[in-house]
User: What shape does this take?
Amino acid sequence: MSKKQGAGRAAGGDRRSGPDPVVTQRPPTTVRAAGAVTALEGAVAVIVAVVLAIREAAGHQEAFISGYGTAAWFGIIGGGVLIGGIALLTGRRWGRAIAVVAQILLLPVAYALLTDSNQPWFGVPLAIAALAVLVLIFSPASTRWLVGEYSADDTSAPEAKPRRRR
Assistant: This one.
């Protein structure tokens, strides 16, 4: 391999392979819908962080929580969830992991809002949103889209036989 070919591989991959199917393949509607709901959840958390920081700066103090600390937690976690939702909207597969973890963590929160906190007006929509995202993320169309990244390599070598485990 010449230096020029090696530099091309290091800079962005093999030029002979053509367009990247991972980038050009549009995500299904189920993935985009899950991404929209996840991005909305992240945006709400970031807004809560801003409100908490403004309240703390205005002099409102709680005896049992730190306004700035809670705002930082909501901002960091909410920002990550927002980025994961945007990633799903734009067709990046890594956003799926963030969305799934966020929904799994939100289900106990929704349960606590429904039972111990007696706030069903917050708990019911949160539970519905979390369950809806999980259903959308694990739907057949979504899983086919996710597997598409790995099956593209398998189609290039049709003569290869699956290995048997001994």
Confidence is low (pLDDT under 50) at residues 4-22. The chain is about 70% helix and 0% strand. The longest helix spans residues 29-57. Helices lie at 3-12, 21-24, 29-57, 67-89, 95-114, 120-137, 140-155.
